[in-house]
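Let's practice the habit of predicting before peeking. Look at the sequence and jot down your guess about where helices and strands might fall. Then scroll down.
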Amino acid sequence: MKFGIRFIGYVASMREIIRLSVLSERAGFEYVWFPHDTFMQNTWVTTTAVAEHTDKIKIGSVGTNPYTTSPAEIATYIATLDELSQGRAVLGLGLHTEKMVEWTGIDAGNYMTATREATAIIRALLRGEVVDFQGEQFNWSDQCYLRFTPMRAHIPIYICPFGEDYLALSGEIGDGSLPMITPPDSANYMVPPIREGAIKTGRNPDDIDIAGCAWLSVSRDRAAATSVLRSMIAYFGPYLEAPALADIGLTPGDFTAISNHLDAGRYEEAEACVTDDMYKLALAGTPKEIISQIERLAEQGITQVNLGGPLGPDPEQAIRLMGEEVIPYFQ
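Done guessing? Here is the structure:
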């Protein structure tokens, strides 16, 4: 099992997140990921700063989408980050929901096509090719090529999918897949299509790094670990998929009241609607309980746990607990 950590902007200030990224490297995390969310702190600036303060940890984005950011910009960004970090860059391309893109008035309904074409374009640019590309989403001229030589001609691209078809596409074209496993039990739903997509195109499914994006809250005090999840569940719960929610006996309808409060800007009221069953959306509890939950994910086919969310009541202490008790267990 590989270990990644994922920092969302509201966990701490940007300078604190850089410090926590350094602590994560020391704790034994192999990857540090940053969600590329619409209207949140800029991922490219953050990853650049982290590259300058770390030495070994791989640095990636999650959900860099080809709508609000051109594949040209994505390719130049990831190649530049790779040079700066001396070969530690990884790219999480795609989107976990089209809704956040559509806030800006862009129709993201053809996300499968856009992701497939953008992946092909970015890889061709990194190889130094002229990308005279004529597709359904992108139409480029023979002037589309990098004016510099990337440090690596192949930088790993992880696809950020949702839904069975998109999951299968990630297995078909991705070096890895970044499905949201919220709840963790939804790995049973997420993993098979990814592996089937790889097999469909003649790839070895074991070559696909399935980096399940889970929410984590770890503490020696289990009650404290669960209670800190409330705000995250309220904000993101309404976007979760029905098949995933079904694994813990929930439906999208259970989040209707929360969604209505969020739409009206009533965030405290939304959090008050979070139920005990909704805490099952995350990996939560003591280090020993987290170990057991991660073992379950390994059995379900997850090859990297990509741990985000609040991390715990005290993010720094959560990182230390992971480094002292959880990660060594799996090594």
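How did you do? The first strand starts at residue 2 and ends at 6.
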